[in-house]
What does this fold into?
Amino acid sequence: MAGDSSFPDMDSDGSERNEETEIVVNVGGVRQVFYGDNLNQYPETRLAELINCLSGGYDSIFSLCDDYDPGKREFYFDRDPDAFKCIIDVYYFGEIHMKKGICPICFKNEMEFWKVDLKFLDDCCKAHLSEKKEELEEIARRVQLILDDLGVDASESHWKRCQKYIWKFLEKPESSYPARVIAVLSFLFILISSIVMCVGTIPDLQIVDAEGNRVEHPTLDSIETACIGWFTMEYVLRLISSPNKLHFVLSFMNIVDVLAILPFYVSLTLTHLGAKLMELSNVQQAVQALRIMRIARIFKLARHSSGLQTLTYALKRSFKELGLLLMYLAVGIFVFSALGYTMEQSHPETLFKSIPQSFWWAIITMTTVGYGDIYPKTTLGKLNAAISFLCGVIAIALPIHPIINNFVRYYNKQRVLETAAKHELELMELNSTEGKATSSESELEDLLREGKEGPFYSSRLKVSHSDTFIHLLSEEKHYRTRLQSCK
It folds into this structure.
């Protein structure tokens, strides 16, 4: 059949009009009938080329489809029928909507196979496709990072290998058991230093110095010094081993680390050298002002908590909702503080002295705090306070749901990405193991065929079965993973 050079059902002059041509397309067992006038609206697509290839013989036909039945004039394609049903909408409606449940990356590949431009895909589906592309890129990045950690480049110097080991040891607790121990120790030092900062302000645990001032107990100072020493050593080692020093220094979490340890050394410098340059009272005030900056070290917990990182990301993605919340509150504060001031002016013992002072009352009322330092005394003022309270509850509750959705969506996404990255590595290792077994079997057959038995044969078998590392790190890969297939 394939050897014939002419199309048997065509007229000798090949002048059949494309507009009147009817073809049957069978995609994955689903038959569809198309007419030339519809398909020729987009002549660059594969279906339109089927119309135009009928006069070109079987060679041109089989270059476009998997199989062809000349009796039924039916073209066969081993493709996804669900995606095909969505793609053919372009011939009838001029746009394509991706059905729910279809992988966006696979759908994009189907569109490329049928030679339909992505511009016909609806905007909502394009956004879904872009999101999946970003997820695949993130999975690929995570897999590459893990592979880089597992791999050892023999061409690297001893210092480079040592840098990578220290960086992995301090930055990636999941890489080994000692790295997890270091991460737990770092977490405990953060907690201890935060507790010491709080406990040091209790008067019963303070002592009086020579000038009669209360200072922290020497034991607490020693614990603080030990914690700062750990933080300093950790930061310096991470800086030395960082692959990108500039990015490391400008990273937000590393800036927090600097702010956590810098006040200690500045206070130490001012205590020992500042007295010569300024009055002692000014030095003590400066030291106290710097010591309060120690609260920045509590943010170091975010480095060891994926939950805090997820919350930070959710807040960053919810700036629009947070801005809406602030706008609601700002309008309510202005309106109810002005009304409260006006309604309370008739009372001789009014607590509303001015509208700016009433802002404080409106803030604590709308946020349901209610300190009680300012409160209305007239009937209209109390009614205004009740309305402001209810409006404040509604204003705060409205943007909460989108913020929670952003948090849950990002948290679930991170879990899916971590699982997908692990599955990719497992698939890579499985493929490399299968390839190793195949090569071992062929190697054994060659050795048996040549009759080479002895120490050399035994050593080769031993190497073949004891190599358990992932070959993807050192050899050219001939296997496609799920990630590569989607791409």
